[in-house]
Hints:
Elements: H1 4-21, H2 25-39, E1 44-47, H3 50-62, E2 66-72, E3 75-81
Helix pairs in contact: 2-3
Amino acid sequence: MKTPRSLALAFLITASFASAAEASAADRDWVRSVEKLFARRRTSVTTPLEHRAKLAAQVAERLGHRCAIRRTENGFKVVLQS
Length: 82
C-alpha cells in the first residue's frame, strides 16, 4: 500500500507536467494577436522567443497557411508562404 507522502509526491509531479504543457496567459495573448495579424493579411510576425515562433506557425497552419520560421539577428521571423 502506498503511503500518503508518496501519493502526494506523485500528484505534484503529475500536476507540474500538466501545467508545463499549458500555455501561459502571455502566450495565449500572443496567439490571439497573431491570429488578428494573419486575419489582416499580414504575411510575417517577429518574436525574440523560439516557442512563440512555433506558436505562430501553429496558428498559421490552423488557418490553412504554410509558413517558414527564419532565425534573425534579433530572434525569429514567421513568414507565410503562398
